[in-house]
Amino acid sequence: MDEEIPQNPINIILSEFGTRLNEIEEKQRLIKDRMLLIGDNLISLREDLERDSLEFKKQIKTLNFEVKTSKKLIERIINELTTLAKKTELEILQRQIKMFNPLKSVTIEEVKKIIKES
Prior knowledge:
This protein is an all-alpha fold. The protein has a domain at 85-118. The mean pLDDT is 88. It has four helices and no strands.
């Protein structure tokens, strides 16, 4: 038959203490594992951020170089524009050419003769 052995209150307390101690140790292991995982994630995140930062710095250097090159090109174009003829000047030249009209004053044979002599 089932005889209940009277348990000593001290044994009950020690048993409960042991159980709680095991639970606390398990929670501590879980926390330790989570902390290690968080640490790994932080290291990985830091490496990714450093890699991205270097890539951004390279892109910024490239963009700065391109901007400086573009500025120099624009300055050259602006300087060249001052030496080019204006539209009104070209119109004047066109009117003068129409008035002169070299094709009416020289025949094709004369042009061929001039070319041969050159």
